[in-house]
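Archive transcription. Copying these from loose printouts into the bound notebook so they stop getting lost. Printout 1 of 2:
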Amino acid sequence: MIEYLKYFVLLYGGLFAITNPIGAVPVFLSVTHDLSWSERREIATKTAITVVVTLVVFALVGEWIFKFFGSSVDAFAIAGGILLFKMALDMLSGRLSTVKISKEETEEFSEEVVTLEEVAIIPLAIPLISGPGAITTVMIYMAKSHHVSEKATVVASIAAIGLTVWLILCSSNRIQRKLGRVGIKVMTRMMGLILTSMAVQMIINGIKGAFGL
């Protein structure tokens, strides 16, 4: 039980750093600036649900994707590590990774008239929160989980991330008031530092597995 709890904390911490929901607060506020609190809560709910569904689906079908494209888990781990490292460098600079969403895309969605469903799914859930880095990570962790309890732990960590995303987005106004833009940038840099170590370790594990070291 303790081992699975440690595994859950490891997965949750890693996914929190990758998804970086606190860093998504300014984008959430910019695309919902003219909406009521109830509408923002509705968007937060749909965003969190989309994040969970997206990550769970890719976690479950990841093994078949590897087989379909003839790719090994280790090769995917190396590629994923490089992707995460690029994201981490952007986050260490205090900005949202362009791997997730560009500044032009953010401005485009803040200026366009879109439905609540469109805002919740794109750009908030995909690719801002459950972007390529998060999808790659859950696919690799699920592929390396050999027991049902381990796979259930991966799904549980995704569900916990969804709940965290919902809580943070619903509290976005208070978070921005408390932390301010500087505080959010500091938090993003901290997540970037954690993500850097994860990316390097993922590459090392991938190289070890590929070459049988």
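Printout 2 of 2:
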Amino acid sequence: MEMMRQDAWTEEEDMLLAETVLSFVREGGTQLRAFEEVGKKLSRTAAACGFRWNAYVRKKYEQELELAKQQRKKKKEPHPPERDMTLQDVISFLQTLQQRGEGQQEIERLREQVWTLQKEKEALEKQLQAVQQEYQAVMHILERARQLSV
């Protein structure tokens, strides 16, 4: 059976416990999982870490814990897919913003971004076409070389 520590907690261990718990909460993990991870690092049981958190450390980090919970909530909120939007989706979004009278600067910024993305798309399509033509030329050369070797 593995021997677990039973000595007093240091300030550094309390900080590690707090940072780990807050990180897990922010990222949507559980406090229990955080206690298990800290326990492994400090050679303490998850129960000891949980007791220390609830009895002492949590009180020192109430504001940070609330902020971590808010950040977790923001991460869980659904966001529209960024890459699956069509140009028509973007136009509709901009028109909706304009109808509400919100963010004229934001609308202009997004229009510029759409224009930039269209130019990037055109450039990538040209590059793709060039690569495809080069590929066809290489395949033609390889086919001729195969025929000559036969």
